[in-house]
Structure formats: C-alpha cells, structure tokens
Description:
mainly alpha
Amino acid sequence: MEPVMDILFQKWPTPNHLSSANPADVEDVIKSLGMQKKRAATLISMSSQYCSGGWSDVRELKGVGEYAARAYEIFILGKLGSAPPKDHALLLYWNFLSSNHPELFVSEEAV
Length: 111
C-alpha cells in the first residue's frame, strides 16, 4: 500500500490536484489494490468534497469510514477522543499519546 500512496501523492500532492484528476490515471496508479474504478471515483469525489467545504465532520465526505475518521481526528485535529480506536496501528499511537500527552483527550461530544 505504501508504494501506491507514495506515487499517488507524487502525482496529486493536494486534494485540489486529486479532485481534478483523470479517473483513468488514478485507476492506473491504484490498480494493484483492486477495485480501482470504484476507489478512483471515491478518491476524486472525496477530494472534491473536501476542497468545496461545507462539511463539519470528516465522516460527511464520501468514502470516509471509522478508521479514516479516527486517523483524521488524531493526526490532523490532534484529538485523541475518550475511547480508544479499534485499529491496531492507531491504537498503538493512541496509547503512546495518551501516556505522554493526556491534554489531547477530549470528550465524546467534541469528537
């Protein structure tokens, strides 16, 4: 997955770039992941929604599930939330931050 992400971010470094990408070009880059037509359409649509604004919770964007939402909260917003994430890798980071930066915990209402 990481080599695909590296290529994807090299070709389209910002959501604005990806929102105007040719779907066939995105499909070529992500083909090894499978379901490239659906994934390319979702990535382009999500990028367009992100750039357009008008959303208040990242979960409103097409294709954003629980993992992506929690990763956004932790890495972008700097909020740990009060409940641990279910994903193993996010949980390791969550445990590290919660031990070293308890000020990042927020109530469920704020997440």
